[in-house]
Write a structure and sequence with these properties.
single chain; 363 residues; alpha/beta; 2 domains; 9 helices; 12 strands; 18% strand
Length: 363
């Protein structure tokens, strides 16, 4: 090997080593290359998104808390919240039936981790099964032992523990409800969640603003629960979702670029008699490999599309699968964008000047 070739080899090795050792031990920043989670700064983790970049890079793993960054003194509907679709359908969730589970998952973290990382809306499918209330995917409209995940009480106790340990946080549950009369009331009572219940009587009926977040916290009314069964609002005091919220089409139908149509059960997205807006953005059949791209620029583009469809209203809830998978900022950046738009008219909540609501934005 010639001297020149040796020098080229040494230069290449030196460059490789300098890049490989450019950051580590918690010093790697957003989109820096990494080899393990420990390389990345707080709030980031090491992730490979083949559709977005080569190798592994540090991407976001937690939300920016809008209440702590700015304030919690505005009505609830003036804020946006990360929402996990089918939050119960978790990779590796322990079996609770005698047969293997044969169904798909939508998340990779426990309920506790989802909440700790900033999810404040949880979509849950509740069924009567095995003499109790369970979280389950349906097949033919019913829960089966091979599509069941676990008793609802187990999940609800995680939510109770979070609310107990975080007395200024609010959690919203959106239930696809297949439970008979009083079943939900019993399981919420057994889980110790009724003391946090936000009452239907305090919910706006004609598109008015919701109570102030600070008042909800002061009264300890920090759990909002919506059901898909209309009669339960009168019989059990569980809010009927479509009386208060509009929602776009879920699944592949809600992922068409430039189009944002309402879900069949929802009134029109621009129906301002409903003061909460939810945007779904996930495939009909979840795909881990596609989700890191879906949860990034494509998601933010859809939020802008749905803003127009909803009568120039930004979403309060944005629901995704595999919420931590992204090309960088992902669903966390999407929520930062929404809160920036809602709270001060800026493109990112971090650009909001404290105390401003009129588009006073820092670079």
């Amino acid at each position: 090997m010639s001297l020149y070739q040796n020098l080229l080899l040494l230069t290449a090795v030196s460059l490789f080593l300098s890049v490989a050792s450019a950051c580590s031990d918690g010093q790697c920043r957003l989109l820096d290359g990494c080899s393990s989670d420990g390389d990345c700064e707080a709030g980031l983790y090491c992730f490979a998104c083949s559709q977005g970049f080569s190798g592994s890079r540090c991407v976001r793993s937690t939300i920016a808390d809008q209440f702590k960054l700015l304030n919690n003194s505005l009505p609830f509907n003036k804020y946006a919240f990360l929402t996990t679709h089918n939050a119960y359908a978790i990779d590796g969730y322990p079996l609770h039936t005698p047969v293997p589970r044969v169904t798909f998952t939508n998340q990779e973290d426990s309920i506790t981790d989802q909440l700790n990382n900033g999810a404040r809306g949880l979509m849950l499918d509740t069924y009567d099964f095995d003499g109790d209330v369970w979280m389950c995917h349906s097949f033919g409209g019913h829960c089966h032992d091979y599509t069941a995940f676990g008793p609802a009480i187990d999940y609800l106790k995680e939510i109770q523990a979070f609310l107990s340990a975080n007395p200024e946080e609010i959690v919203t549950l959106i239930l696809e409800d297949y439970v008979g009369p009083n079943g939900l009331t019993k399981v919420f009572t057994d889980a110790g969640l009724m003391k946090y219940w936000f009452p239907v009587s305090s919910m706006p009926k004609n598109g008015e603003d919701w109570p102030l977040v600070s008042d909800m916290v002061a009264k300890n009314q920090r759990l909002l629960v919506f059901t898909s069964i209309q009669s339960k609002e009168a019989s059990e005091g569980i809010a009927y979702q479509w009386n208060y919220m509009v929602e776009n089409q879920y699944g592949d139908g809600g992922m068409q670029a430039g189009s944002c149509s309402n879900r069949g059960e929802s009134s029109a997205l621009d129906d301002t008699s409903k003061s909460l807006v939810l945007v779904n953005y996930f495939h009909s059949v979840p795909s881990k490999s596609a989700t890191c791209k879906d949860n990034s620029g494509d998601l933010i583009n859809m939020l802008h599309t749905c803003y127009g469809a909803a009568g120039n209203r930004w979403a309060n809830f944005v629901a995704v699968d595999y919420y931590k998978r992204s090309e960088g900022g992902g669903s966390f950046q999407a929520v930062d964008t929404l809160n920036g738009k809602l709270l001060c008219g800026c493109d990112d909540i971090h650009a909001c000047v404290p105390g401003s609501t009129s588009g006073a934005c820092t670079p």
